[in-house]
User: Fold DUF868 family protein from Trapa natans.
Amino acid sequence: MKSIATCYSEHAIRVSNSYCSGPSSNGVLLSRPSPARPEEITCSYRARHSSGKQLVISLTWRNSLRQQGLIISFSDKTAATSPKWLLKTKKGRRSFGQCSDYAEIDVSWDLTYARFRGGGPEPISGFYVMVQADSEVVLLLGDAHGEECEAGNPEYVLTSRSERFISGSTYSTRVKFGRAGTARSHDVMIKCAAAMEEGNASYTDPVLLVFIDGKKMFGVHRLRWNFRGNQTIFIDGVVVDMLWDVHDWFFGRGQVGSGVFMLRTRRGLGSRLWMEEDEEKKKKCVNAHENVDQFSLLICACNSNSNSSPS
Assistant:
């Protein structure tokens, strides 16, 4: 049996299904469309107050015809998510009063000179968002904060990121999968392309391709019939499970079909796939540090024609 180190040296790929291919791209016709632009990005952070209490903060950056701006919500490890609030102005401060286990939560933000990548909804520089719980800074994002925001190093970790795309056949983003503070950013690209079988120029058999930093990790052939599945890969020595469900792209009854892709880190090959874990075991993981390395990336790709793959 090969060791983890050996598997990692051999392209860091683990292939177990006949419909999945490895690094080779033989038999795949790759088009080069521009990646679709996300309409909405939601990031969830788990923050720890000096008192030991936790606070989950969700920020949704939205840029659609229906709504633009920043949406924020709060929850703790036991309570349900609080109502969502839309911060309409580019700069401001808002107090939310009693929220979760805290007497008061204050949010300050400044997006006046924010810069965005490729017209996406999430700023990459020239902004800041600060969250205070009972007068203590628990979350500080961005690079444009002044001295009034300097308050030590708040303790928080990004636990999940979800991106919503409308139309398109190529979806890309940039994320970190390893331990906070030491992880490198990686370019993740998911593409739905046409496949040719044995030289027959028939483009009716779509294939799903997954790339990390421009390198093909695996491909899923006969996607119309293999519309659900999972694959395990290694990124920076971290075990990452990828799951996909594109059933509605081909068989959905509505006007819009959604394809869902999730990449989630796992503690190691010896641990079970996250969705197979016992519910009682999940309930016992109440300490934030037990799951500090667990991260999930969710991509939802909607297409106006649910009876065919994205074009």
In short: The longest strand covers residues 185-197.
